[in-house]
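so my prof wants the structure for this chain in the tokens format not the other one, which i didnt know existed until like an hour ago. anyway here's the sequence
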Amino acid sequence: MIDFNVPPYIGTELDYVKESVEVNHKICGDGPFTKKCSAWMQDRFGATRALLTTSGSTALDMAAMLSELKPGDEVILPSFTFSSTATAFANVGAQLVFIDVRPDTMNIDEKLIEAAITPKTRVIVPVHYAGVACEMDTIMAIAREHNLIVCEDAAQGVMSTYKGHALGTIGDFGCYSFHETKNYSMGEGGAICIKDQKLAERAEIIREKGTDRSRFLRGQVDKYTWVDKGGSYLPSDMNAAYLWAQLEHAEQINDDRLDTWAAYDKAFADLAASERISTPVIPEGCVHNAHMYYIKLRDLEDRTAFIAHMRERGVCCVFHYVPLHSAPAGLKFGRFHGKDVYTTADSDRLVRLPMYYGMTDADRTTVIEATLDYFA
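here's what i got, hopefully its the right format
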């Protein structure tokens, strides 16, 4: 069976984990490897501050706390996203306002945002689906006009850009995931990018259980104490060591995944041209990271038959999100603004093909041939 995902592995990960244990004698958070990863992100992406977290979810939790939301404040986000996008803001008492997605990118439809704004709106959360950027110029202009915070859910967007800017660094906050299903992994982990330096200083405190321990370790205070709300959002340096091995080879991993993405896109171009399927669209000004390759079939029945066919051929394919506004928690904590034209219909049609670093030419060919056989 060709797996849908294989966690990335360069080969030096365990050497660095061993170094953290036997040489550095530092396996808790904020050790040498944590600092290397943070510095790499700040330098590579041009972020004011980048902090590793225990997950993409806790990065979003930190962004929600830093946004200083009060119960009843509203947050605009797409319904076609992972639960963490919504849960972070529901946890601080915000009302979720879901809006429809664009059918070309499956990203939030920027043309629908302004109509969903009320006097209670405080935050817009664009989710960069499949590592393809939302229309950030429009979103940022709306945010400036209405004095709103922008929190980018860039969990899938590491190494992607919008008009030359790294995803996760355009809004006030940007949240990455380094889960084993992502392009770069530390098993469980994430990061938050923060534009405002003062908020970055508070983020350090929130990440360290509400204490000023980071300032103490830098010698800025004589002792550290509890100064704010917070949580345990700082990952082990062993996890950071694992991630560092991959960040050292970030371009290699990125290029490898792009090769697979391009092979799929070329193979299925005729099917897309005949409108038998829809394939991913990369808007002008966007550079993606080949986080995933998906196709959209005619309907749910067609997709179900396709997945069964692929499994018979030894290929694991999976669908993606069930729209949040239809989930029990979505009904409890939010509402859908406007019409659901594409969110549910397209989520029923979408299926993801195997995509991972190190995928062999033979496995790519198997996936392509099995897909073409279905449509033949």
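also thought this was worth mentioning. The mean pLDDT is 96.
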